Amino acid sequence: RDMSGTLGFNEFKELWAVVNGWKQHFVSFDNDSSGTVDRQELEKALMNMGFRLSPQAVTAITRRYSTRGKITFDDYIACCVKLRALTECFRRRDTSQQGFVNFQYDDFIQCVMSI
Any idea where the EF-hand domain is (predicted)? Predict the structure, then answer.
């Protein structure tokens, strides 16, 4: 991670390992072997990754990343990357770890636009 804008071989190997891990995770929750996950499968996968989300949040995520209620592996990766980045941004500001933060509008925009 040298921030050069290119991937060296070691960076590629690291990325490849992460993508393969996500692929195995995706396949393990694709209960019907359709090559996609539906809302219920996504909810279980996200819970397994430690995300504790309301049913309404899972529905919003499904609407954002699915086509006809089905999420492909590519969209699953995009979803996971976005959720992880948003969660990290939130946790940095949730210093008391209570699940609540107080954002100024500008700080919120910077956080969201950096993802």
Answer: 17-52
**Which residue type does 92 have?**
R
Q: How many domains does the chain have?
A: 1
Q: Are 45 and 25 in contact (CB under 8 A)?
A: yes
The mean pLDDT value for 79-87 works out to 92
AA identity, residue 27 = V
State which residues form the domain around 108: 9-113
SS3 call for 35: coil
Instruction: Tell me if 2 is assigned to some domain.
Output: no
Instruction: Report if residue 1 sits inside a domain.
Output: no
CATH number for the domain spanning 85: value is: 1.10.238.10
Compute the Cα dihedral for 18, 94, 111, 80 and give only its sign: positive
Beta strand residue intervals within 1-115, DSSP E? none
Does residue 102 contact residue 108 with C-beta atoms inside 8 Å? no
pTM comes to 0.80
